[in-house]
């Protein structure tokens, strides 16, 4: 743009001003890009949906002044002592007594009923037992016929590895993240037992078949659940990208590996008639599934709080103030919940006011920041789905229980690098499901594997993990 007065100095300064304006706009844009990259680089488990295991550098906790607190149990802490093994459960009893007086060699009497001191010691006997099962022919002289007594079918079905050994192999592979090479080394060094990788793979396939009915029983219960918490994480099968879905119901957990992360998985697992409540994050698949069914949703408040914290930490001005005020309102609402007993008859009214304050602050004086606008729109569109836990007994405001259940899967993925076949996928689904459900009910996984294999080798269905009825 020119002034049109023909003044050379004016035109020169005008060109310089235009030049500087262009540079300023370019630098401002570059600064915004750098700020966005810096903000993304500082995401961690406290201000985003990233898991704690992804935190490369964790904040250093402030140390207490030296000498203020000693290591170990603190004063007043109740000591925990391991209970002694009852006498009727002992395998061996060793008693130490003098046969004669150590001073003069005279005769002594020993009080075996009241020992002066006791040391109980537990030892593991590392050995394997090999049994050869032989089928013999018997000839009848009366009818001149030969009869062969067959080996029991459960023995033939088990093959080289019996129930106990098969259970240990399945336990090592499923619960201990052990590779086939590691299992081979363990069996060789501990039991002096040499088994090939191929044989170990066949044993694991048998364990997978044995626990398949347990998995099917729990999978079938999902559709009838009133509340389901669901989460998903990545999975690799021979390098191919897949997804592990976690469905956590009342007292049990089910895992499903699928190539898709879409709503089709929810339709396959839960069907079109599911009318329970789903606790989940704000992923689009849950929105779509809600539109196709009569289900309700409780969106995870923990995810929302992390996103607001991130916005507060990496913004200024109106955006910083808006996110701070909204976080304060959410904190006040949960404060009311924690003071339920203290508030008594005033609880319902104060909780309703606190929840309304959250919705109001989310939609009041929303800044122009895109992230803030999106978060505000969530409350406008799905405020009821964020606050459903306030009016639904037994419903949690967060999806933490599903995220906790899926942590083992993430660890297993990092250690084992996933699966390598469809059979491997089914094994992981089944063993993870059985493990998580055993943990919920304080059951021994090894005992469940033993029982399942015993029934499987006999051609029977194993007893269910959960009580029937």
From TrEMBL:
<dbReference type="Pfam" id="PF20042">
    <property type="entry name" value="DUF6444"/>
</dbReference>
<feature type="compositionally biased region" description="Low complexity">
    <location>
        <begin position="43"/>
        <end position="54"/>
    </location>
</feature>
<dbReference type="InterPro" id="IPR004291">
    <property type="entry name" value="Transposase_IS66_central"/>
</dbReference>
<feature type="domain" description="Transposase IS66 central">
    <location>
        <begin position="161"/>
        <end position="425"/>
    </location>
</feature>
<protein>
    <submittedName>
        <fullName>Transposase IS66 family protein</fullName>
    </submittedName>
</protein>
<dbReference type="InterPro" id="IPR045618">
    <property type="entry name" value="DUF6444"/>
</dbReference>
<feature type="region of interest" description="Disordered">
    <location>
        <begin position="38"/>
        <end position="84"/>
    </location>
</feature>
<feature type="compositionally biased region" description="Basic residues">
    <location>
        <begin position="68"/>
        <end position="80"/>
    </location>
</feature>
<feature type="domain" description="DUF6444">
    <location>
        <begin position="20"/>
        <end position="80"/>
    </location>
</feature>
<dbReference type="Pfam" id="PF03050">
    <property type="entry name" value="DDE_Tnp_IS66"/>
</dbReference>
<dbReference type="InterPro" id="IPR052344">
    <property type="entry name" value="Transposase-related"/>
</dbReference>
């Amino acid at each position: 743009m020119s002034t049109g007065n023909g003044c050379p100095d004016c035109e020169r300064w005008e060109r310089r001003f235009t030049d500087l304006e262009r540079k300023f706009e370019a630098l401002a844009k570059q600064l915004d890009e750098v700020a966005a990259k810096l903000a993304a680089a500082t995401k961690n488990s406290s201000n985003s949906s990233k898991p704690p295991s992804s935190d490369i550098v964790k904040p250093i906790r402030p140390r207490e002044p030296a000498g203020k607190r000693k290591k170990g149990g603190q004063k007043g802490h109740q000591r925990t002592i391991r209970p002694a093994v009852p006498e009727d459960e002992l395998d061996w009893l060793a008693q130490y007594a003098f046969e004669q007086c150590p001073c003069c060699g005279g005769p002594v009497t020993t009080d075996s009923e009241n020992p002066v001191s006791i040391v109980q010691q537990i030892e593991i006997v590392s050995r394997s037992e090999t049994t050869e099962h032989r089928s013999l022919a018997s000839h009848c002289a009366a009818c001149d016929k030969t009869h062969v007594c067959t080996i029991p079918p459960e023995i033939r079905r088990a093959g080289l590895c019996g129930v106990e050994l098969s259970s240990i192999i399945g336990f090592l592979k499923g619960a201990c993240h052990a590779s086939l090479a590691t299992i081979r080394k363990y069996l060789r060094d501990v039991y002096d037992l040499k088994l090939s990788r191929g044989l170990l793979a066949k044993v694991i396939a048998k364990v997978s078949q044995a626990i398949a009915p347990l998995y099917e029983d729990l999978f079938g219960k999902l559709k009838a659940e009133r509340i389901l918490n669901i989460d998903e994480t990545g999975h690799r099968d021979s390098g191919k990208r897949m997804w592990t879905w976690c469905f956590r119901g009342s007292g049990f957990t089910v895992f499903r590996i699928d190539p898709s992360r879409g709503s089709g998985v929810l339709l396959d697992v839960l069907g079109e008639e599911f009318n329970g409540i789903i606790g989940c994050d704000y992923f689009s698949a849950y929105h779509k599934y809600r539109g196709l069914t009569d289900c309700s949703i409780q969106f995870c408040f923990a995810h929302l709080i992390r996103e607001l914290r991130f916005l507060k930490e990496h913004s200024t001005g109106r955006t910083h103030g808006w996110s701070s005020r909204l976080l304060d309102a959410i904190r006040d609402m949960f404060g009311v919940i924690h003071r339920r007993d203290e508030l008594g008859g005033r609880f319902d009214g104060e909780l309703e006011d606190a929840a309304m304050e959250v919705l109001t602050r989310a939609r009041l004086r929303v800044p122009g920041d895109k992230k803030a606008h999106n978060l505000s729109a969530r409350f406008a569109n799905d405020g009821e789905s964020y606050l459903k836990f306030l009016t639904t007994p037994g419903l949690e405001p967060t999806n933490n229980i599903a995220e906790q259940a899926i942590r083992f899967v993430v660890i297993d993925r990092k250690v084992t690098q996933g699966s390598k076949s469809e059979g491997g996928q089914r094994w992981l689904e089944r063993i993870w499901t059985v493990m998580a459900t055993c943990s919920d009910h304080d059951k021994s996984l090894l005992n469940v594997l033993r029982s399942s294999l015993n029934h499987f080798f006999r051609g029977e269905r194993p007893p269910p993990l959960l009580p029937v009825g």
